[in-house]
Please model this.
Amino acid sequence: MCCFISLILYVRSGKTSIQQVLFENLPPKQTFYLETTTRIVKHTYDTVIPLEIWDCPGTITVETLGAPLSQFLTIIFVIDIRDLYNQPISKLVEFIVAAYHENPNVNIEVFVHKAEKLQEDDKIENFRQINERVTDRLLDISPDYEQMPLNFHLTSVYDHTLHEAFSRVLHKLIDSLPFLEDLLNVFCANSQSPKAFLFDIASRLYIATDASPVDSATHNLCCDYLQMLNSFGPLYKSASASSSRHRKLLPPVLSVPSLSDHDQESPGRTTPSAGASNSKQRAKDLFYPSAAALLHPSTPGTTLTYHLIMEHLALLAIMPTPVFESRRGLVEYNVVFFREGVQEIYQVEQEARSGG
Amino acid sequence: MKKKVLLMGASGSGKTSMRSLIFSNNPASMTARLGATIDVEQNHVRFLGDLILNLWDCGGQDAFMDSYLTTQRSTIFQHVGVMIYVFDVETREMNKDLEYYRDCLEGLRQYSPGAAVFLLVHKMDLVRENKPVTFGKKHKELQVASGDADITVFGTSIYDESLYKAWSSIVHTLIPNAAVLSKHLTTFAEVCSASEVILFERTTFLVIATSTSATEDIHKLDGTRYERTSELIKAFKHSCSRVREEFHCLEMELPDFTAVLDEMTRNTYVMVIAHDPSIETGALRLNIRMARRKFEQLQGDGHVL
Ligand SMILES: Nc1nc2c(ncn2[C@@H]2O[C@H](COP(=O)(O)OP(=O)(O)O)[C@@H](O)[C@H]2O)c(=O)[nH]1
Ligand SMILES: Nc1nc2c(ncn2[C@@H]2O[C@H](COP(=O)(O)OP(=O)(O)O)[C@@H](O)[C@H]2O)c(=O)[nH]1
Ligand SMILES: [Mg+2]
Ligand SMILES: [Mg+2]
Model:
């Protein structure tokens, strides 16, 4: 089964930009040149859960959607932060009501978008007003709507708010979230790490984090760090690197057949194995990419670590440099423990999905 | 040692933006807020300890240009090490630009005949289609306007790595012992069993020198890797500064290579890249630590480092 997410609402509110920046790595500035969407475009994206994202044209209505609203797990409405007027708000309310009627369990998310266009005070004020007007309008229609699971987010493609908001949207779709969070809590406690994230590598959305509150600055730094590593990856790729380098590489042991195996042609690649116990045994000999960035040399200093966990996922953690430098073995051990836990969860989900 | 660098070009062509990007670690998005430069802004930038760049960011409005070329002529054009002339690729006044440019060349010929000349066709990001063709045309036009003067032309933009490529090349001409450095880096690469070693200036992360190795042909590495690395590290340094942290060192064991980026001397950073899978980051860091004294010594011997 797939998780549908739909991006709906006005012409030029930034829907396609959001999809492209998050999942196609489009530089934010380039969104200026995107063409207007005239029909629904469906994008799939595989991470811990397979996503199907429908990018709808601004003219979409419940009738022209071409699928029952009940099919969607999440609907994201994208509204320009400057659209405080009656009409856009009415359209938003209309759609929310229709969606809720067809599927009371649907997650309704409103991205108040292009937020960076306004100064801090205006931003907060407009956000508050949009939120208030929508809520008031809904309550006018029926007091029942008080229970409606409606979430507002301030977003922009030009900063990290979009990533943070979309991550939160994603979390509601991940059934195994509590287990992943537990594993992260254990990792943090054992590695003296004040914060750790499990990131989807390509989209830089975080799948889960430990129980400590997410501080935006730390989240942004991790996002940027991941972006730098993603960019470094292909930069020093050798045309002739010894195949031994690749042979040690982690094969997508637990990946689903439908996942895109983009580097399948690399010569020394081991074939994915089926048995879980078998793959676990081999996991110890496999090569998992890792990295560390040490910040300010003055004691004690902070280190940002990166460890590949599975094909699409990486663990990013903040830890005191002395822990990383002098207790590396312990950190590595904790990573292996974490990795095995995640792989196990994934395996179970995979079986449930294909079996059920 | 002081080197005078003239930054010329029409007002709005992007001179101050590039200066702030390269030397002040400001992100490209902040340049829109820069005020217009009035007359000449002189800046001294310490580059590699002994080498001080004396940047003359010249306003570029017609009135100033006229006075640079007349009453201020000798002040502006004497003792110039490098002149950088910036052309906005989308300018509608190319002819006027070229006229001023030719006058500047003449001023240089008169007062600093040995100066190197770099021409930047800037804001290349604004060209939507067929960048190489647009650039080729401008290049030819500039060559013709320069007559027999020895010039180097780059297409640049503050939004990608091209600016780092151009500026690395510019500062390279100002470093007297680049060849010596390159030789030492090559030896160091061999000691580390590394495929490549790159030396960066500490604050700008411009490339100062690289190892030259026989294995380069085998690996066929990406041709833009040096300037891309400068850009990536600068961007990350900026991210760190936003949370009041300071970038210090990076180690990577990625699918295709192993690398360490660490301090070399007080004024430089070094990046060591190995493709041999048996090389570990710990070993590379140790090697860098051991090489530090040697490279500090080079500096003591009067080399610029
Ligand atoms: N300032 C700003 N502009 C944005 C943002 N996101 C998208 N845009 C711009 O909004 C315009 C319309 O975007 P598009 O994605 O085509 O909107 P859609 O019609 O909703 O799919 C484009 O020019 C984008 O560059 C944002 O976060 N901030
Ligand atoms: N698109 C684009 N704009 C640029 C670039 N470099 C500078 N600019 C913009 O050009 C404007 C003028 O830049 P400025 O540095 O003040 O020009 P100066 O008068 O030559 O110093 C600013 O709004 C910059 O943001 C570039 O590479 N691309
Ligand atoms: Mg669209
Ligand atoms: Mg200026």
